């Protein structure tokens, strides 16, 4: 038997923080690829510390629903799962290329394949583009458009910015968009000045965040000048400084993230049959239907 555990941060303040984890788990559960699928959180129940004890499977694939490598993926999650043999050096990563490490959770006698975070997987670049398609209702979006990939940014974790630059660089290399920039909330270049960084009249802004919350629903729209009060809402697109801003909200809510979670598990050796392809087809179709509503 094999199990999948999707681990997220959760929040006592933002009730929607855990929604993406539950949604993507439901999508994956429907494929039947795993005998068991569980969600676990740092700030909500079920907790990291207890989740392995709820499983009957002896082989477990743990996928962090986090954007970047850092304190939570390298210290908190392994500690709470009691992965005693875990060493961050085993990922052999420069901040964006963690893959997986197989260790024993000896207190529950399970083999755990601990995967790198969803946010640094190459397929997340596809999700960002999918988000741009969804918000513009244009499957061919790119020509004449700029794309801003937004991260939090923090001096406490240099890898936070690395993940944003990584995907911006990968998408830029496809030459799909006229311009692609990485911008941030708490470091330069700042999202407040997003229109200063683009010549394109149309700019798609995609926050590389797991869930919608204070930052994506309140801070970023106000910082960009879409509204002076998030409670009043804003238009999509909104006119700002001679540009049209197409603001998408958190990328982690895009249905295609379920595909990235599966790809992380697949990279770690999970027996998935055709589950990835079925999820990709389903989520792309769901996204196309949503865009047409």
UniProtKB/TrEMBL annotation:
This is Sirohydrochlorin cobaltochelatase. It comes from the Archaea. The gene is cbiX2. GO terms for molecular function: metal ion binding; sirohydrochlorin cobaltochelatase activity. Pfam families: CbiX. SUPFAM superfamilies: Chelatase. InterPro entries: CbiX-like (IPR002762), Sirohydro_Cobaltochel/CbiX (IPR050963). GO terms for biological process: cobalamin biosynthetic process. It is an enzyme of class 4 (lyase). Keywords: Cobalamin biosynthesis, Cobalt, Lyase, Metal-binding. Its EC number is 4.99.1.3. CDD domains: CbiX_SirB_N. PANTHER family: SIROHYDROCHLORIN FERROCHELATASE, CHLOROPLASTIC. NCBIfam families: PRK02395.1-1, PRK02395.1-3.
């Amino acid at each position: 038997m094999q199990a999948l555990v999707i681990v997220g941060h959760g929040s006592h303040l933002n009730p929607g923080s855990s929604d993406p984890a539950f949604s993507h788990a439901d999508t994956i559960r429907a494929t039947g690829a795993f005998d068991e699928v569980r969600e676990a959180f740092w700030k909500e129940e079920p907790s990291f510390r207890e989740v392995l004890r709820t499983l009957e499977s002896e082989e477990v694939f743990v996928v962090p629903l986090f954007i970047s490598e850092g304190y939570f993926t390298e210290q908190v999650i392994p500690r709470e799962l009691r992965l005693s043999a875990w060493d961050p050096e085993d990922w052999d990563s420069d901040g964006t290329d963690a893959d997986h490490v197989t260790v024993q959770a000896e207190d529950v006698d399970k083999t755990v394949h601990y995967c790198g975070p969803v946010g640094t997987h190459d397929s997340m670049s596809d999700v960002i583009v999918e988000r741009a398609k969804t918000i513009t209702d244009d499957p061919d979006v790119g020509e004449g458009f700029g794309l801003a990939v937004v991260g939090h940014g923090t001096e406490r974790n240099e890898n936070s910015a690395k993940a944003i630059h990584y995907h911006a660089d990968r998408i830029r290399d496809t030459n799909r968009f006229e311009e692609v920039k990485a911008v941030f909330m708490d470091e330069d270049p700042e999202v407040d000045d997003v229109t200063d960084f683009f010549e394109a009249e149309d700019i798609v802004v995609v926050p590389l965040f797991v869930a919608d919350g204070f930052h994506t629903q309140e801070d970023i729209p106000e910082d960009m000048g879409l509204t002076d009060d998030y409670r009043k809402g804003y238009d999509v697109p909104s006119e700002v400084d001679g540009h049209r801003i197409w603001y998408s909200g958190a990328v982690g809510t895009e249905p295609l993230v379920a595909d990235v979670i599966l790809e992380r598990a697949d990279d770690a050796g999970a027996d998935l049959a055709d589950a990835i392809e079925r999820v990709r087809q389903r989520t792309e179709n769901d996204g196309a239907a949503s865009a047409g509503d």
